[in-house]
Structures are given as C-alpha cells and as structure tokens.
Amino acid sequence: LCHAKRTDEAVNMLLHRMSEFGCVPNVISYSIVLKSLCDDSRSQQALDLLQMVRKEGGACSFNVVAYSTVIHGFFKEGEVSKACDLFHEMMQQGIVPNVVTYSSIIDALCKVRAMDKAKLVLQQMVDNGVRPHMYTWNSFMYSLCKNGRSKEAAEFFDSMTSKGLKPNIIVYSTLLHGYATEGCLADMINLFNSMEGNGIVAHCNVFNILIDAYAKCGMRHEAMLIFTKMREQGVSPNVCTYATVIAALCRMGRLSDAMGKLNKMIATGLQPDVAIYTSLIQGFCTHGDLGKVKELVSEMMNKGMPRPNIVFFSSVINSLCKEGRVTDAHSIFDLAINIGERPDVITFTSLIDGYCLVGKMDKAFKVLDAMVSAGIEPDVYTYTTLLDGYSRNGRIDDGLTLFSEMMHNKIKPTTATHGTLLNGLFRAGRTASAKKMIHEMIESGTTVSLSIYAIILEGLCRNNCADEAITLFQKVRAMNIKLDVAILNTMINAMFKVQRREEANDLFASISASGLVPNASTYRTMITNLLKEGLVEEAENMLSSMEKSCCAPDSRLINDIIRILLEQGEVVKAGNYMSRVDGKSISLEASTTSLLIRLFSREGKYREKIKLLPVKYQFFGGATVE
C-alpha cells in the first residue's frame, strides 16, 4: 500500500485492520508507515503516530530508525526546530543516534546555514563514540567553506587526519575550493602540494579549481603554469578547463594563444561551449578585430548556439566607453545591429556616455537622435548622462535647458540627476543658482540624500562659502544622518580655511568615536593644514598616528609636506622628508622639483643652505632658473 502511495489505507491497516486479523504491528510495520507519511510531506502526522503509540505503551518500542525517519522528514519540509526537538526527545528516551541520524541532522543544519548548531551536533557525535563517515565531514566542511569560513573548515580537516581518517579527493576538493573562493591562494597551493604526499592523485576538477582561482585574482601567469603542470601529469583538460584558460588568455590580450587553445581543444574531440565563444568574442571586441568577431558569431550560429545578445554587447560597449575608446565602442554598436541585435536604452545610453566622457557632445546627441528614430524613448538615465556631459564640459546653460526639456517630457529626475546639475552649477561658480535648485528640490518634496549633501557642502567650500557650509553641516549632524569620511574630510578642510582650527581638531577626533576610520585623505587634510599654520610638531605627531594606524603616507602627501616646509624655510626638516623619496612608491613631483630649483639654484634665496639637503639633491645648487 505504501509503495502504491496509498498511505491513508496503510495507516488504517496498521491501526485497525491488523488487530482484526490477530496480527500485532511491530516496529518494522510502523517504520514503513512513518516513512510513507514523511515521503508525502506529512511528517507532523508521522510524529503524532509515533507519540500516540509511545504513550499507549505496549509491545512496540521505536528504535533509532523510526525516529531518524521522522527527523529526516521534518528537515525535508524545512521544520528545523521540530526536527531538533524530536532529536532531543529521542536522546531523552535513551535511544542512541546512529551515524545516519547524526549525518542527516548535520547535513540538514548545514543546508539552513545553522553552522554553529551543526558544529555542536558533530562534536556530540564524536564524544558519543559515533565515528563520522567521510560524507558527514565533507558536508560540514562544504557548508563552512560556502559561508566564507574556510579557516574553520581547515581545522576540521586537521581534526579528521589526527583521528586517523584519511580525507579523500572530494574532501580535498571542498577545502581547495573554499580557499580559492576566499582568495587564500597560499593555503590553497600548500594543500594541493600536500595531496601527492598523502597518496591523493589530483584529477581534472582539482586543477580547474586552481586555474580558476589564479585567473580570477589576475595571476594569469600562475594559472598557465598550473595548466602546463596538469598536462605534464597526464591529466586531460575538460571543457571547463579550456573555458577558464581561454578566458584568462583573452583578458591578457593573448588572443592568438587563446585561439591556439581553442583549436587544440577541438582536435582532442572537445567542443567549445557558449562561455568559450563569449570569452573569445569579448576579447576580439576589446582589441578591435571585428572581422574575427563576425567569424566567431557565425560559427556559433552554425553550431546552433545562441549568439551573444544585446546585453553582452552593451557590456562591451560600456567597458570600452569607460576606457575612452568610444570609436571602438561605436564599431561594436554597429556590428551588433548588423548581426541582427536590436540596441536597447542601455546600449544607446552607454554609447552616449562614451561621447560625453570625451567631450563630443554633438556626437552624443546624434546617438540620441538615432535612439529616438529607432523608437526607443530616452529615460532618466539617458538624460542624466547627457546632463553630466554638459556639466563636465562647462556647458551648464545647455544642461539647464535639457533639464527643462526633461521635466516637460514628464521624466522624473533621480537623486543622481539633481546631483549632476548641482555639481555643474557649483563648478561653474553659480552658487546662487545651485541654492535655488536646492530650495526647489525641498519644496517639491524630493528627499535630500547624503550624496546630495556631500555635493552641496563641497560646492559651497569650493566657492568660498565655508562658513555657510559649516552652518549647513551642523544642521545635517543635528538630523542624525550617518555621515561618511569624505564629508568629514571636506568639513575639516573648510574649518581650517576659516581659522576654526579647534573645531577641525574636534571633528577629526569625532571620526573614530562615530565608528568611522580616518583615511589617507583625512590625514593629508590634517597634516597639510597644521603645517600651513606653522604647527610642525603637531603635524609630525599626526603623521606618526597615521603610520601607526597602518595607513602609509603616499607620494602626494610627502610632496605636500616637502613643499610646505621649504616654503616656510624649514630646510632641514624638508630634507628629512626628501630622504623618504625612493623613486618607487614615493617620487618627487614636478611642482616639488620646480620649487627646489627656484629656491636652491644660483639665484635662489636658499642657495646658501643647499648643504642641508640630502647629498643626492645637492645638485640643485648648480641649476639655473629659465
């Protein structure tokens, strides 16, 4: 009956009909019915039956199999708490869980990410003398790795080996993949190297994990070395291996090598998949070989594969535009149309953005006209892109005209739209117009976000309205808006500008108290302003604090310090900082070199102090000012 899915009839037979025939149900009879109920997602009924029989007493005493069946049923239905309650009830009944029960519970807890509970059950399992089998260990380690806890997984791996268990290739693969996902490449390769000594022969999937990990971290040379090692060990690459290697070669610009791998793959009887063709097409798009792109697209279509869609081409176009390669991007745009793809609003907007970024607004509007002619309405992102182009190119009046057109077309501006226009107005020094727009935003009920406040505060400071910016900043702080470090940096600089040093110091001190961390820009603002006020000792203490916070001073800051000290006549101290210049991470900027020539040349006012500089810079004493 249970096999035929007639569970209700089976329950009736168990509880009523068997006794009529003089038969007494035993634990096997009950277990069959319990399993059938659980298979039908009726685990609660199974539990009710189990508890009813237990309360009635009698000859039937449920064993670990019956309990495990219902526990597993609850887990399958997502009733984790009920499953755990029944597990504890079973323990209280004096029934010792077996390896199947424990494994079922651990596996189910891992699937719902209750890792700490799973860990306790595993520990209890070991303490009770039940030896976990390899599947249990792997299930637990897999879940730890999946949740970014590969270091803990490694501890359990070591625990396995210390107990005499020999991890198999699946367990090794699990931990290798965990390390790879978290970027722990040194741990990954050390574990891989230990496999051979432990008698584990790496198969193709293990090598794939290593190759993919190195490729994703940009270590493509190392990925190629692993690929070579794989072949040397007689392991044949599969489609996944070739996909990873070809993608890596394409990103390196080694397209001929990538095609070589494609041909070798086909020669061994493996057929490239969509992922491989996509990598190659993207590579040739990026390097401008559109003839090869057409060839590969045709090849895909002849094999019955779906060709790259407009989403793919839009991504390529966007990447090229961001690199300033708008001509190449337009060629890809035309190619997409030629092979039958229809550009969408994202494709057109990406291309418009490309022209805006290189200052070709006339061409950006030609693309807009083509977009409208194709029956695609520009959206708020298209308008915002064009507004940003006008703003960047100092054509704010054209931007305001376009904004009016946008509003006339009933397109509601976003925060980014307002931010773009405000930024443009402040850049053009039109503070009054910017303030008017802010007032209109507030009146229309538009929420002023943190990013907008950042633009307003920075814009006011840029236009010599520091006191006004400080007043607004104090109002924003009173609104309990969580500020970021960038805004605080802007305001610290503003406070120094208007000789409100104590307030600047207090604001700097509040950064850590707010749970934020001062960044390199914060320290640069503090140090340079303290130096400008002649507070050299305080500035040096601040630099020391910066270094103790593991925030190394960069080349820009060291050059700032050198220039300020030189301008103040602090030649010895400037020389001390010049000693930090190594030509690698820290180099002298052109403006610093120019200042050194002006101050220490034959006509310079500090020419007598040239010997106070480090020896390698004393040649400035013989320079002449042109």
UniProtKB/TrEMBL annotation:
Pfam families for the chain: PPR, PPR_1, PPR_2
PROSITE patterns: PPR (PS51375)
One GO term (biological process): mitochondrial RNA processing
Keywords: Repeat, Transit peptide
Gene3D superfamilies: Tetratricopeptide repeat domain
Single Gene Ontology MF annotation: mRNA binding
GO terms for cellular component: mitochondrion
Keyword Transit peptide: yes
PPR repeat residues: 63-97, 98-132, 133-167, 168-202, 203-237, 238-272, 273-307, 309-343, 344-378, 379-413, 414-448, 449-483, 484-518, 519-553
Protein name: Pentacotripeptide-repeat region of PRORP domain-containing protein
Coiled coil: none
